[in-house]
Amino acid sequence: MVSSCKDDFLEEEPTQRLSPEQIAKAAEKDPSLLNGSIAGLYATMYKTGTGGTTNHDDYGQKGYDVYSDMLVSDVALAGTNYGWYTGVVRYQSTKDFTSNPAYQPWRYYYRLVLGANTVIDALGGTDEEQTVPQNRYTMGQAKAIRAYAYFYLAQFYSAGYGDGTEKILPIYKDTKSPNQPKSTTAEVYDFIIADLTQAVAYLDGFNRASKDQINQQVAKGLLVYALSARGTTADLNQVVKLTDEIISTGGFKLLEKNEVVAQLDPATGRVLNPQSGFNNVASSSWMWGVDLTLAINLDLISWWGQMDVFTYSYAWAGDPKTIDKGLYNAIRADDVRKGQFDPENGGIEKFYEEDGYAEGDLDLMPVNKFFDPARVIGGQRNVTTDYVYMRLEEMYLLNAEAKARLGQDGAAKDMLKQLLAKRVTNAGYVDALSGQALLNEIYLQTRIELWGEGKAYLAMKRLKKTVTRGSNHLFEAGKSFAYDADELTFPIPQAEVLNNPVLSQ
């Protein structure tokens, strides 16, 4: 009887979390079971604690968008009452491999790699050809997520694509591999691009249920970023082709002027154009994002809980985040996007005097770009305003950038002007630009258009730019840092150094 109990009730594998082997066995009988694993990967992108800590800056992809915007200095931390991000903006975390900001992205992105590899292994492994449509869609999403994770690891933990021989990251192609040494930049990018190329092929015909899922257009967008970062002539020509396809056939639309910035009733401060706010995944330009609902249960520990003064947030309570003053001053007076930020010469504070706000309190904060629609200072407790990961405007800018890098100035200007026609009164000034001046303008417009969305750091790395902090930064104001400076790249964290004995072989 004792033997029978042992056989019946003591299992060799725990049931609390399915092993890759258990998942593979179950998927052989019902491949649709892998949909749950894919959904879990998407949830990891916005769940708290996915970087391995309980910190209030540990909430998935948007948390690392804030890291990158602060490293590139386009987002300035204007208060340190609570201390979040202080190590990042002081460039301490990028020099200290024991710091949490160095550890959290590493843990988060490799967690995604492990989850993606679990799905890939269940479908037969990286090299297994998929012929069943559902399996192709599942494999395509898994490979896209794995590539996305490795791409961001390559951004945060290396100085950019050099000659390809720099050893930067370990590559794990399955769940069974032992500890791996660092691979070269060329090997990492070859792996990323191979994954995304196959993802684009496998996701042909996939009709996603919601925008948090990666479809073929999003996979193309991720491939565009990887090719732009590597930046060979062949890569840039492929960037032009892919972005042209996304723009012409993706079904997305550029945001109009009245969607880009809140227009306020001068008497009451009420928003007259509720379609503004960068808070709704249904936006016609959003290619990839997530519809945050009450069921997801996000609150203070979230992107909105760090950035939005109209949310119960650190931005409201004493750690405001503002646009770099130099970047703000570079926005043309006829550019509607200048109105996304509260001006220094008197802004919306008059509408919140009863809440204790005086002139200057909201200076240069993104009060008219990102906001909870109710616009109650410190109001939104349970976050239902949405997250954006990718939008169509990025494809216009990357298309223009690639053409400029290829020496196709005329075509680059035409593409840039299509975007600027919806942002400035007269985009004709672009006609006089060429060569490096044109590329500089595209880079500037990338920083302006995508402020607060985590994309300027990527542009800085691929274009090998120098960061110069404006006068409104609390630390290192006025100082400049080259793209390959230690200050702008995280070190591989202590946990990996200690636990991976072959890391540097």
From TrEMBL:
Keywords: Cell outer membrane, Membrane, Signal
Keyword Transmembrane carried by entry: no
Cellular component GO terms, alphabetical: cell outer membrane
Pfam families xrefs: SusD-like_3 (PF14322), SusD_RagB (PF07980)
SUPFAM superfamilies attached to this UniProt entry: TPR-like
Domain SusD-like N-terminal as annotated: residue spans: 94-203
InterPro entries: SusD-like_N, SusD_RagB_dom, TPR-like_helical_dom_sf
Keyword Cytoplasm: no
Cellular localisation: Cell outer membrane
Family: Belongs to the SusD family.
Name the UniProt record assigns to this protein: Membrane protein
Annotated organism of origin: Adhaeribacter aerolatus
